[in-house]
Each structure stands twice: as C-alpha cells, then as structure tokens.
Design a protein that fits this description.
It contains 7 helices and 16 strands. It has 296 residues and is of the alpha+beta class. A hairpin with a 2-residue loop joins β14 and β15.
C-alpha cells in the first residue's frame, strides 16, 4: 500500500491544506483527503506513517455515524465508487481516506473537552490550580479523572500554537448563545463517545471538536475523536499519578522529546521502527473501537 503525503487532483481546486488533510472544491461541496502525514508540536514531520490517513478517516466516519443523534455532521458521501466520475482515475489514492462533505462556515474555535487532567491542562493546574478560568479541586494527581468533563476552548490558529480561551473571552468573540451551544454539544459528544470507548477498553482522556454553520444550523465538522485529535489510553493499564501508555500520537511526541531537537527548527525524520510501531498503534485503536479487523 502506497503512503500518501501530497495529493493533486486535476479538475478540483485545492481550497485548503492542513497538517494532515487536503481539501478540494467540488461544485459547492468539499472533498477531504486524509494523508499519511503526521504532525507534532505544530510541525509536520518529514516521515509518513503507512495507513494512517485511512485509519483516521475510517475512525472519523465511525464516530460521525455513531454520534449523529446528538448533532448532525457535514458528511455527504463516504463511498469512493459514488464520487464524481472525473475522480475515478484517482480511486486508488482516494479509497478509504476521503469523504465528500458539505461546505460550511467553520467557527475558528477548537472545542476542547477534558475528562482527565493531562498535557497542557496538567501544566496549568500545577501552576495555578486552574485550566483557563476554571478552578479545579485541589489534590489532583497527573492523569486523574476529573469530577466531570470540562470545556476548555482554544483559538484555531492557521499557524503556530492555538491559544487557550476563557469562557468569558470566547463569548465576547463568538457570542454567548453560540459558545453555550458549542459547550453543550461538545460535552454531550464526549460523554457518549467516552462511555462507548470504556466498554471497548479505551479511555478517551480528552478530545477536540470543530463545528461549522450550515445555513442557520450548527453541525459537527472536520474529524471526530481520532488518535490525532484525542488522547486514547488503555483502560487495563490506567494508573493516575504518572504518564499513561497511549494509542495516539503521544508515542511520536515522546520519541521526539527523547532527541535533541529544539522544537523551533525543522523536525527530524522518524526511525523505521518508530514509524512502524506508530502505524500498528493506530490500527490497534481502530480495531478496539470498532470491533472490526482493519482491512485496506
């Protein structure tokens, strides 16, 4: 199976290029292609992870379908055989890793939900006892489960680091009604997904959602609860007070932290064993969540 790092499609204008996804215009709709690129610390790494794009796409589609009772999403077509005829010659590239979605007006806000305290949230808590403007109980340990999931939005920056928003500032920027709606739906999505994942032996420690306006409706967009947008921990090895084994790209971050890379320059490539292990971790996450054997 060929790894896909860059995608060019004759007859479809590229309208966006993210760290992992490429977006093309299709007569008022959008074709999203998920590549095998991997990012860490806001850099796209020079190495590609085999099958990663297919796995991320399949996991997103699974969650979009599972969670559509809470809120509609942007999916229009996931079957590559039903894509426009001019895309037929690209079928080998697109199969498994692409979807056609509605064109939305995306809200520039990352809707982060945390069920456990880790990452930058843990760093902030250690310093202030808070995350953003939310005061948390004292005495929490690293990776502890929070009393209830919390909503900690950030800005969605085109480049560089996203910036944590207080709820007050988020409401001032986007409006009280919209932010309250995004908070309610984000927490509901996280609750339903995390309860499902626990039954499959996976803790979803935190995740982030994106939403867009479809006329006068707000719908779920981008990706949903993938190893790129979430922290997945194996339930049977969970122990608060320490870092956790992970099914997500934390494995890649940990490797990079073990090198002498300064995180302010071009990142190094990943060794072959790290690439292969990362691919296996993503496959394992897919199989645990869906209960299906991963097949290309």
């Amino acid at each position: 199976m060929k790894v896909i790092g860059d995608v060019d499609i004759e007859g479809a204008a590229r309208i966006g290029s993210g760290k992992v996804r490429e977006m093309f215009s299709l007569d008022g709709r959008i074709l999203i292609v998920t590549t095998d690129r991997v990012s860490a610390f806001d850099y796209i790494l020079p190495s590609l992870i085999p099958l990663k794009g297919i796995i991320l796409n399949k996991i997103s589609v699974f969650w979009f379908n599972y969670l559509k009772g809470i809120i509609d999403n942007h999916l229009m077509e996931t079957d590559v055989t039903k894509f426009p005829k001019f895309l037929k010659k690209y079928r080998d590239v697109l199969k498994g890793r692409s979807v056609i979605v509605k064109k939305l007006v995306i809200y520039p806000i990352e809707c982060v939900v945390r069920g456990y305290i880790t990452g930058s949230g843990w760093t902030d808590y250690e310093k202030t006892g808070k995350i953003g403007d939310l005061v948390l109980p004292g005495g929490l340990k690293k990776c502890d489960r929070l009393p209830e999931p919390i909503f900690t939005p950030t800005t969605k920056e085109a480049s560089g680091h996203d910036i944590t928003l207080t709820m007050t500032r988020a409401k001032r920027i986007f409006g009280r009604e919209i932010v309250d709606f995004l908070k309610e739906k984000s927490i509901a999505l996280y609750m339903k997904a995390s309860e499902y994942a626990l039954r499959k032996g996976i803790i979803i420690a935190d995740t982030k959602f994106e939403f867009g306006a479809d006329g006068d409706r707000i719908v779920l967009a981008d990706e949903a609860l993938t190893p790129d947008s979430s922290r997945f921990w194996p339930l049977n090895e969970y122990e608060p007070g320490r870092d956790q084994k992970s099914f997500d790209k934390q494995f890649v971050r940990d490797y990079l932290l073990s090198t002498d890379w300064d995180r302010n320059s071009t990142p190094p490539g990943l060794p072959e064993d790290i690439v292969n292990k990362t691919s296996r971790i993503y496959i394992e996450a897919y199989e645990k969540l869906t209960g299906k054997k991963f097949e290309v």
